[in-house]
Amino acid sequence: MKLKRTLVVFLAGSLAITIFLFFYLVRNPNSTLSFVLHGFGIKIFEPSYLEKKAGEKLIDGFESYASSTQVRNSIPSKFLWQVTNNSSLERDDTRPPYNWLSVSLKSYQYKGYTGELVLNFFNDRLMSCVFCPADVEGFKNDLAKDLKVNIIQGSEVKISKNVRLLHYIDYKDCPYFRWEDNRLSNEVSAWLLRYS
User: Fold this and answer.
1) Contact between residue 167 and residue 177 where contact means Cβ atoms under 8 Å apart
2) What 3-state class would DSSP assign to 132?
3) What ranges do the domains of the chain cover?
């Protein structure tokens, strides 16, 4: 009787853990299980790459998942909307859509700091905002006070449920701060992993 009860508890626990892991892994488009299933032609756990979700605050009132038209209409006319990258797949490509738009706003002003603001859109959904201020240290200190976090170069800080702040140096040796919605960056990674 004791052995039977132990076996039932073990099986129930194993089933619960299996169910938890299954739903955790398949909900993450970067999950190994999702990728393995894709390899077998099973795409039911794959993101649509077009889904609009509730956005979250990035920098200066910009919200993730906003369209390029919405964002452009919200920017004061004194800032020139300069497209730096606009790429997409060919019309006859059978893969899911992959449209990338990067826009630069030179001399952007945020909280008294001036710098370049780059807006990145994946399939016409704002994914990230990258700010390269002229006064990096001053901006970093003020931002750390505002967010009540320690910002270290080369690190990431979670600032909301789906948004993280990254502080790195780019290929031009320019320190930058990047607000990024993880849901969209995970979609980009999932697309690249499967289709590039």
Assistant:
1) yes
2) strand
3) 1-46, 50-195
Q: Would you say residue 98 has pLDDT above 60?
A: yes
The two tokens of residue 47 are 């993101």
Instruction: Quickly state the pLDDT bin for 21 (edges 50, 70, 90).
Output: low
pLDDT single digits (tens) 32-52: 666 676 666 666 666 778 899
Count of CA atoms in the C-beta half-sphere (13 A) of 183: 21
Q: 174: part of which helix (H) or strand (E)?
A: none
Rounded to whole angstroms, the maximal C-alpha distance in the chain is 79
Cα separation, 113 vs 175, whole angstroms: 14
175 and 132 Cβ atoms separated by less than 8 Å: yes
What Cα–Cα distance (Å) separates residue 120 from each residue in 62, 99, 173?
Answer: 12, 11, 20
Contacts of residue 193, defined as CB under 8 A and 6 or more positions apart, other chains included, come to 30, 35
Tokens of 111: 């909280």
Q: Which residue blocks in the chain are alpha helix, DSSP H?
A: 2-27, 32-39, 68-74, 136-147, 182-195
Q: What six digits make up the tokens of 6?
A: 């132990």
